[in-house]
Amino acid sequence: MHYQTESWGSYMATSSYGDPLERIERMASENAVVIFSISSCCMCHAIKRLFCGMGVNPTVYELDEDPRGGKDLEKALMRILGTSNAVPVVFIGGKLVGTMDRVMASHINGSLVPLLKEAGALWL
């Protein structure tokens, strides 16, 4: 897993830290698999373990470790999802897959692996 905690500052170039929705879009498109997470969330841990167990190396953004904008990103994710539960949120190939239930449904119905292959996150 690749944790993106030390680079939060690079996203904070503007005085208001930029639009959270634009930041999410940019962050999600920078790597094949991106997980927005909270470090103490058990569902976030489970989704990270799922991807690592499949041989995928996701980029993980721990929102609670971003002192300058994590809460804004969390609120923006809630708006995108239309839910009060913002994490974990998974993007594959820059496209929103969704939260834990969507990822697990995709895994069970066999559509997750093709998504990962298409994004270049899985080669087998």
Explained architecture:
Strand 2, helix 2 and strand 3 form a beta-alpha-beta unit. The longest helix has 12 residues, at 42-53. The chain is globular. The model is unreliable at 5-16 (pLDDT under 50). With 124 residues, it is α/β, with parallel strands linked by helices. The two termini are 18 Å apart. A five-stranded mixed β-sheet has the order 1-3-2-4-5, sandwiched between helices. Helix 1 crosses helix 3 (70-81). It has helices at residues 20-29, 42-53, 70-81, 100-109, 112-119, and strands spanning 2-3, 33-37, 59-62, 89-92, 95-98. Helix content is 42%, strand content 15%.
Provide a short characterization of the protein structure:
With 124 residues, the protein is α/β, with parallel strands linked by helices. Helices cover 42% and strands 15% of the residues.
Q: Kindly estimate the percentage of residues that lie in beta strands according to DSSP.
A: 15-25%
Order of strands across the main sheet: 1-3-2-4-5
State the helicity in percent bands: 40-55%
Runs with pLDDT <50, length 5+? 5-16
The total of beta strands comes to 5
Largest sheet: 5 strands, mixed
Q: Radius of gyration in whole Å, from Cα?
A: 14 Å
Oligomeric state of the chains in view: single chain
Alpha-carbon distance between the termini? 18 Å
Shape assignment:
globular
Mean pLDDT: 87
Order of helices and strands: EHEHEHEEHH
